[in-house]
Design a protein that fits this description.
single chain, 498 residues, five-stranded mixed β-sheet, 2 domains, 17 helices, alpha+beta, rod-shaped, Alpha-Beta Plaits, 67% helix, Rhopdopsin 7-helix transmembrane proteins, 7 strands
Amino acid sequence: MSAFRPTRIQITVAIVLILAIQRAGFMLLGTGHLGKFFLDACIVVASSITIACSLDAARRSSGAPRIFWLLFACAFVLQWVAAVSWTYISFFHIHIADNALFPSIFYRLYAGPMAVALFLSEEVRLSKLESFLDGCIVVGLVGLTMFQVQMAEQGSHDATIWQLITVSTLVNVVLVLAAAARFWVTGAGTLHRLYGRQALYLAIYTGIALSTSYVDAYLPGIDASFDLIWIATYLAAAVIAITWNPPLLEEISQPRFSRRTSLLSFNLILAAMVLGSAILGFRIVSSTRLVGLAAIIVVLFSYAIRCSLMQDNQEKYLAALQESRAALQQQALYDELTSLPNRRLFAERMNQTLAVAQREGYRVALLYFDFDGFKPVNDRFGHAVGDLLLRQAATRMNARVRKTDTLARMGGDEFTLLLAHIPSREHAAQIAEELRRTLSIPFELDGHSISITASIGIGVFPEQATDAAALIHHADTAMYAVKREGKDGILYYSPELG
């Protein structure tokens, strides 16, 4: 069963109905205790609708858009708490000043989640935690400034009210401009649309906040009636959320600015926030000084955590780069099937081993393997079983090889073993015989018992060859001689073999 999605006409009718009920209640009940209770209850209903619409938008979204709508809902949860508190106060006739710090402070804290949402990003190198901490820095400034405005509201009809209205408006304008800037710099896609909706809501909120503040200060005769317009901020937010349609396919967008430019801009803004928080914290001589200090702590600790995260990301990036290089080296120098050194790495190690052997004056032997009967295994059981046979054979041989020696796959069913620093010529034959017996033990593969043998040719340096190419040729020649003579055997190279 699909979720209910109202049409534009239904949304319009619902908004008009809510506004009509609010206006009618105000006209009938006035501004007494019952009237205040009714108006506060209307705000509770409106904020509840907005929260429900935001959560529904989050449910229909994923990734960064889901976080955006959850933050959007959090902003109205804070306002809902304030509205419920005022409703409770009105219902039980609790005496509290209209300009009291609690519960009006929750109205001011809405800017926190809104500011955090400005820092959402889908960039791979920017985690959601970094985005949240970036937002905390904005919360440090915005939360402090809104607190100062709340404190100033204790004298809402003072002659200096215009200064307070200006400060409050500037804070909201900053948020609007930040959302608009995010909307502009973000390429086409989901976030681009989200920032546009946030900028629209903040513009509506700022316009209503400015107009109501002006009326409260200079037109006290109509301020109670004009304040009813605040419900429009909730209704506008509900419409913005309920009309959100997540795209089926995300458009690929490119950032307008480089990573370096973005980091530089962030750090410059951060410096301004620290300075602004310090000024706001120490200019006021009342208890708000503690709030200023708290804001500075939020900013500095957020910056410290963010720097730590940036350093952690850099270290992760370097580790990933090293892993990538290791993977590329693995692909370039090792056999994909058996993970043994390939021809290229074997040639490098062989040249190094022969150079040291020539300088130190000791023997080196090369064993060249070719499996007897491997082609019938492929023909009868398939290449998958053949590959499994090669892997297990390589594992068996590698388990009996010294760390100083090099076992490599030359291709197909041909392997080589470079024995560095052997004590005698006969030692190579002993190693070859041990490996031949190891390979003759049947392999249990995919429910089949498969037996193979090996033809092994041996070349010795420097007695029979003086360079790598000659040593490989001698061992290979000896191996083919074993195959001609009946396979499953070991043979040293000799000039008579050609």
